[in-house]
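Support reply, case 0932

Customer input (verbatim):
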Amino acid sequence: PIQSDLARRGALVDGEDVRGEYRVIRGRVALSQMFGYSTTVRSLSQGRATYSMEPAGYTEASPEVAKRLNFGF
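Our regenerated output:
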């Protein structure tokens, strides 16, 4: 369910590891898609999952996003 939710948010999954009893999913997704994710990930995992984020870089906003944000492009 977590990978499906990440896909819905447009995430590009870079890989997945198993570390003992834990599964670690690495990927990239727009920061704007991650607001409220802590609640979602806890709900999807019945309170067992956690997540962390760090900046992976910057890219230009798509024309659709720029229009929605009213950047005038």
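We compared this against your earlier run and they match. Two observations from our side: The two ends are 36 Å apart (CA to CA). Helices lie at 2-8, 37-44, 63-68. Please reopen the case if you see a mismatch on your end.
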